[in-house]
Specification:
The structure is a homodimer. Chain A is built from 9 helices and 18 strands. Chain A has 2 domains: about 100 residues, Sandwich (Immunoglobulin-like), CATH 2.60.40; about 240 residues, Rossmann fold, CATH 3.40.50.1820. Chain A is globular and about 70 Å long. By secondary structure, chain A is of the alpha/beta class. An 8-stranded mixed sheet of chain A has the order 11-12-14-13-15-16-17-18, with helices on both faces. About 5% of the residues of chain A have low confidence. In chain A, strand 1 and strand 2 form a beta hairpin. Chains A and B meet through helix 1, strand 7, strand 8, strand 9 and strand 10 of A and helix 1, strand 7, strand 8, strand 9 and strand 10 of B. Strand 11 of chain A pairs antiparallel with strand 11 of chain B, so a sheet runs across the interface.
């Protein structure tokens, strides 16, 4: 309310300075041909530029042009149909687009969001289909010693039925937290769409917080705790994976009507979460029949690791999905190494080499391609 | 990830310009004595000011002072322990604090968030207590003809028990949507705290979207729909209240293990939601035994309205809570009028006259004072 009054006040100042009423600024505006118009009314600013995630060379900011009223504007594109984060840079300060209510947090940073509709974005667009429920759930991690938060997606109809469903455990990367797969990954909408199209079996998706030192995402933690990486960070190594096995899976299987046993459990993760996935599945080859490692792979494959991977084969994993962008150098090498080991042991695998790099666009694609293959 | 690279790039430009490495900017920083330090590194900006919700005179922006490195800074306070939204104004542009990951959306506008801990904010602070689950749930509104979204808070232990719980229906104001009571109102944490202290009975809290033309909050709607007020807005009048009775209550009572009957239902709302509450309870005096009208009241009290209020008395309402800030002129008059009618009919009421005006600080207080009185 006060912000509105403040805006009126600022508008008043502008009125005095410019003698004309500014219409409400529309930004971003997606126009035909997959183009986007960005606008910012900033009569006092010297320069306005923008960075958006469609830009592969981040040193090439887009410059907005000022007209005689102080409105800065630029048209970009065509760009691929996708959801993009972007920021304005106003006189050197990285800011959000004040005309756009849609904001996405990535770790400690926020970006404004724009969706260009089309084939790619229809994977995770919000369609007129039945939607599952997304819940923020607190559980006790006795392994880590704190009460922690995670997200749980239950498929459409879950609350109305007594059917037991299979479960996908879906892990985020470094810098993320339990919000990441729902905000940037859009996992709930990907599943809604796949399920409504009959492509995926209805399943639960469990999205924990992979930073073992955190209670929950920033702003959702007790004021006496911090979300920043602690100095004794190293002491948390392996705790999350242990907690997944000892705290999270038992919590889910106790409190939700789900199917048990390895054939009804899948696990997948991106980047750091891909590493977590490798760690959990090699230490507990008896737990999951479906494994997905996105944009991660493995760094080295010594004899001990090889023995562990053989155990995965012996435990009859049904599908091992490896997804990686060919421009994602380190991870791509690691993925090739992982695939070589899968091949050697005769573990059934899919190697999805996509264009691009270490991006949410790729992780959304991997999830949307892997989910239909689960529990069948 | 790319944003980090971009920041490194911008930092590089600054390094070139200033020849020294900038440490990471900490902002906001809450310091002793309920003071807050705000900082923004903006060597190219001419002026930086800020507006925060503790400022009652919105024409008096706080000016940040620039030091010789280009860091703008200001210390404000002491301020009352509360959670506040604030924005920077950089060369005339209203922006968020780029150093602060915490963002709160109010309708179409975002603000950065800062919490000053203390007595007032402990009402809704995140404490080390058992937390309930907060779920985003989709339901079909046959009254409105769309699949819509709401939030449902289930108390700690709900998933683990077969106990049936009572339900509070909690309504937001104009300009808000289903997010408002969870983000600005912090209802889940208020209930967690009251329940853990034994002050409130465990209950469900149902927080629907009160804009009958909306599917859900911005960014959560099918791309073919809009969240903006339509030109045929008037045709939606009364639909939300109807939908609450015909769609939402039946959905909750079918899909959740809750207690039925009026003594196990409460309804409360702020501003527009207070109006919705008056409308629903006068049209359906048989549905709720507990009624809360925050910062709203009634505009006129003709004979027809008086008859309806008598029906509320005849239906043995157990408690009618009226909360209003004495500086909230229109609503305060309306609240006094409502209280006069309650008095006349001998309806048991509480009139909570607080300091301040039409603010979330007040609405959080009213909820935290009303909830302990429910279902007893």
């Amino acid at each position: 309310m006060r912000i509105i009054l403040l805006l009126i006040f600022i508008l008043g100042v502008w009125l005095n300075s410019f003698g004309q009423l500014r219409n409400r600024v529309i930004s971003p505006e997606v126009i035909t041909g997959n183009k986007i118009v960005f606008r910012l009314f900033a009569p006092e600013a010297k320069s306005v530029s923008l960075y958006g995630e469609w830009i592969t060379d981040y040193t090439k900011l887009v410059i907005l042009q000022r007209n005689d009223t102080g409105l800065f504007q630029v048209e970009v594109g065509p760009v691929a149909p996708e959801i993009y984060g972007y920021n304005f840079i106003v006189d050197g300060v990285l800011v959000l687009d004040p005309s756009n209510p849609l904001v996405r947090r990535d770790g400690q940073r926020n970006a404004s969001l724009v969706l260009v509709p089309g084939n790619e974005s229809s994977l995770y667009g919000i369609e007129k289909v039945p939607h599952g429920t997304l819940s923020k759930v607190w559980y006790n991690s006795s392994t880590i010693g704190i009460n922690r938060r995670m997200y749980i997606y239950t498929p459409p109809g879950y609350e109305q039925s007594d059917i037991n469903y299979p479960v996908l455990y879906l892990l985020h990367g470094a810098g993320g937290d339990e919000d990441a797969w729902t905000t940037m990954g859009r996992a709930p909408y990907i599943l809604d769409n796949l399920i409504s199209q009959g492509k995926s079996r209805p399943m639960l998706v469990v999205m924990p917080n992979g930073n073992a030192y955190q209670t929950a995402a920033p702003g959702e933690t007790p004021s006496s705790t911090t979300t920043e990486r602690p100095s004794d960070f190293a002491s948390y190594r392996g705790k999350y994976e242990e907690s997944l096995v000892n705290d999270i899976i038992p919590f889910i299987e106790k409190n939700y009507h789900v199917l048990k046993g390895k054939d009804n459990r899948a696990i997948a993760g991106l980047s750091m979460g891909g590493g977590n996935t490798v760690t959990v599945t090699t230490s507990h080859p008896e737990l999951f029949s479906y494994i997905g490692v996105f944009s991660a792979g493995v760094r080295n494959a010594d004899e001990a690791f090889d023995t562990k991977m053989k155990a995965i084969k012996d435990n009859k994993v049904k599908m091992y999905y490896v997804g990686c962008g060919v421009e994602d150098r380190m991870a791509y090498q690691g993925s090739q190494l992982l695939v070589a080991i899968l091949k050697k042991h005769g573990i059934p695998y899919i190697f999805r080499e996509s264009t691009g790099g270490h991006t949410w666009a790729n992780w959304r694609i991997y999830l949307s391609e892997m989910a239909p293959l689960l529990f069948k």
